[in-house]
User: Fold this.
Amino acid sequence: MALIVHKYGGTSMGSTERIRNVAKRVAKWVRAGHQLVVVPSAMSGETNRLLALAKDLAPTKSTASIDREMDAIAATGEQVSVGLLAIALQAEGVQAVSYAGWQVPIRTNSAYTKARIESIDDARVRADLAAGKVVVVTGFQGIDADGHVTTLGRGGSDTSAVAVAAALKAAECLIYTDVDGVYTTDPRVVPLAKRLASISFEEMLEMASLGSKVLQIRSVEFAGKYRVPTRVLSSFTPWDIDLQEEAQSGTLITFEDDSQMEQAVVSGIAFSRDEAKISVLGVPDKPGIAYRILGAVADANIEVDVIIQNVSHDGKTDFSFTVHRNDYSRTVDVLRSKVLPDLGTDRVEGDTHICKVSIVGIGMRSHVGVASKMFRCLSEEGINIQMISTSEIKTSVVIDEKYMELAVRSLHRAFDLDAAPA
Ligand code: ASP
Ligand code: MG
Assistant:
């Protein structure tokens, strides 16, 4: 018997029929002797619907007091889900009780719309489990120190589930979702992409931050920090498949040190169209320039990703970096108003038609020449690399967005990730 956390996404919760199927699947685990905590998302489309209603009435400029109400509204989606699922479980003959985040409580900071979990009180949940109940806890939400309802940001139910599993020291956290696991890359771009039976936590963290949308990145951080064995698996398998088979399916996030595994050098290819490139041309090449430019950007709370500074000519240089595409025009505004006048240039160029393609693998730590193999592959396809950034276990390049699919497909093949054709 083990304590297991299940998380179900919005699609699984999308209708009463589907909720009944979730209840049947959970009941199967209970009958096999396990203790279950279930964390569901809102019914699919519900969070969007609620936020659209709120936005329809809200003034254009968002303030903390508007965001407070946004969270109070958005959190209701999950509250409906937990109640419905608890009823469906009882209809299956399983004892169940539902809780909203504040009832557990799941304590967060006060950063409305992107709150972070600070602590979870496990006493109430443990008492119910001991009494033989399934406990259904809302995803996505919590309560701050002043008693205000908060939400964790879109996709936050993944994080709730892993955090609950960490607090309860659960044996495993199973994330039931629309995809049947983590793939070497997005199968919509590369049909020969393969599902990984396991992926190391570090690789998963890179994949999530580099654009793979399988899990909310905060949930991966939690899994790593508390070493929660977390598995991503399909919610589309019939609820009555063999439990052992289900328990082994999908992709397990692992924490073993690399030496135990026969590790592929590159485990996956990630990509993202979410960035934009900004170049400041003809800035003086002297100490403090990077700080002047990026300091002002950071002060505006804008996150910078890839950075490049070119060699100088006649004491002048060009400085380029990428930001999230949503922050592009704000960044240019900040530069024009706060930075350029002092630097003696007014030349700032932007490019929103870029993408970032990354190779990820903990095997890169112990193999040389991985990055150069990437560059060779791209050059053979005639793809120009605009920027490069590396870390111990990834290499990212910024390229023209129109070559994204070609780049991903070629790299997938070059690093032997293609599945044998069926
Ligand atoms: N319902 C929330 C959303 O749509 C949280 C989640 O599903 O993870 O973002
Ligand atoms: Mg999700």
Summary: The domain at 3-179+214-256 is CATH 3.40.1160.10 (Carbamate kinase).
